[in-house]
């Protein structure tokens, strides 16, 4: 299947690049979570995030919140919305079993283009699917009800 990709995926080389792309600056805390035998969460100030994620390159089961908080990861503590995402968990759907993330990316881009939806800023192969992220300028918590 040959789909022309107008906006090819951005390839990041290190976790700190991902952190800076998603959370370039601003107030609040980002939750960094790991499953290393048990679930662990740490709240990290945005400015310290690149340094804290750098040693995690290649580690499995590492998660980073897409948005910022002023305490625990709860809507009541939301500081700003920094990204939208779609998690495409295709690994259990019979028609997609065995597909590589690149193939799913091509299908997703074709569907997004047909629907006139902008291409995502970043695509992340999660091991069980493909996470598409649209990074945008920060929207304050007060806009959440709208």
Description of the molecule:
This protein is of the alpha+beta class and 146 residues long. The protein has one domain. It is 18% helix and 31% strand. The strands form two sheets. A four-stranded antiparallel beta sheet has the order 4-5-7-6. A three-stranded antiparallel beta sheet has the order 2-1-3. Strand 4 (68-69) and strand 5 form a beta hairpin. The termini are far apart. The model is unreliable at 1-6 (pLDDT under 50).
- The tally of strands reads 7
What would you call the structural class? alpha+beta
Number of domains: 1
Strand percentage, roughly?
25-35%
**Helix content range:** 10-25%
The ordered H/E elements are: HEEHEEEHEE
- N- to C-terminal distance: 40 Å
Q: Cα-atom Rg, whole angstroms?
A: 16 Å
Unreliable stretches:
1-6
Q: What is the average of the pLDDT values?
A: 84
The helix tally amounts to: 3
Sheet with the most strands: spatial strand order: 4-5-7-6
Most strands sheet? 4 strands, antiparallel
Backbone shape = globular
Please outline the helices and strands:
Elements: H1 15-22, E1 29-35, E2 39-45, H2 49-53, E3 62-64, E4 68-69, E5 78-88, H3 101-114, E6 122-125, E7 130-140
Antiparallel strand pairs: 1-2, 1-3, 4-5, 5-7, 6-7
